Amino acid sequence: MNRNDLCYCGSGKKYKKCHLEIDAKLQIYKMKGYDIPPKRLILSPKDIEGIRKAGVITKGILDEVGKLVKPGVTTDEINDFVHKYTIERGGIPAPLNYHGFPKSCCISIDDVICHGIPSDRVLEEGQIVNIDITTILDGYYADASRMYYVGEVSDKAKDICECAKKCLEIGLSVVKPFNSISDIGVAIEKYANEKGYSVVRGFGGHGVGKVFHEDPHVSHYDTKTKGMIMVPGMVFTIEPMINEGTYKLNILDDDWTAVTRDGKLSAQWEHTLVVTETGYEILV
Ligand code: MF3
Ligand code: CO
Ligand code: CO
User: Of 146, 214, 243, 247, which sits with the fewest C-beta atoms within 10 Å of its C-beta?
Assistant: First the structure.
């Protein structure tokens, strides 16, 4: 790419006024042993706007669905709401048929870490529930999840949900150009361990945008690796799964549901974000 060409990122600016300086700096990080993002991970303002728009549906669902979370409701009923809400707004629920996943969202109760499949299971007073929504709109994916309480829950249950939310915020706080993706897990694991919790290792955050799961893989624990350098225009999720006991997990016979190996609680919060020149913007 020549200095006076239009920048590959799609900003409409000349390369010399846009990603040139960033690319020069990245070469130095590369020599130091860091991974640097391939160009396909630097999304254009148009692509970022597409993800933001898909995120309006995802956020709308997460805002509304809390009203449905109460004792006696089945997770299928919540799934039906998610499906209908998405379709009515011109979107597609990304989980449906994704590598054979049978439903339109993931609903993970108590000791389920993630990828819980909606079913005729009835919600019970005192449970904690993660609802994970990914919407496709005009080909763009927006992925986010939150925890919900079924009626009154114990202080112990509230504490792990609050810790997961705080871990997401701590992860976000280290997102800025030329920090490493690895810094996210270092910060999250330190906080979670101080609180007496463990961090799931078997799943992580991910690049997202024109596909559901893309590089970089975002670990929520310290992998002791240099990792990939963050630059403006990268879009990825942070979605820490925090366990009360062991971080180890089992996958059930349905090949999806991940549960804690000791049957203790797990909680998760998720955002999709874009790296900006000064830090980050939450897209959903
Ligand atoms: N939304 C999940 C994530 O945060 C992925 C769910 S994949 C599914 O990455 F197939 F289980 F829906
Ligand atoms: Co995700
Ligand atoms: Co998700």
Answer: 214
Name the CATH superfamily for 43-282: Creatinase/methionine aminopeptidase superfamily (3.90.230.10)
Residue with the nearest Cα to atom 4 of ligand 1?
A: 143
Q: At 205, phi and psi to the nearest 5?
A: -75, 180
Which protein residue has the closest C-alpha to ligand 1 atom 7? 95
Contact yes or no for 160/78 (Cβ under 8 A): no
Q: Tens digit of pLDDT for each residue in 212-256?
A: 999 999 999 999 999 999 999 999 999 999 999 999 999 999 999
> By three-state DSSP, how is residue 2 classified?
coil
pLDDT in tens, 43-95: 999 999 999 999 999 999 999 999 999 999 999 999 999 999 999 999 999 99
Ligand number nearest to the C-alpha of 95: 1
The domains of the chain are located at 43-282
Other Cβ atoms closer than 10 A to 272: 27
For the entire predicted model, the pTM comes to 0.98
Neighbours of 72 (CB within 10 A): 11
The beta strand positions in the chain, using DSSP E, are: 92-93, 106-109, 112-114, 128-137, 140-149, 198-199, 205-207, 214-218, 235-238, 241-243, 249-251, 258-260, 266-268, 271-275, 280-282
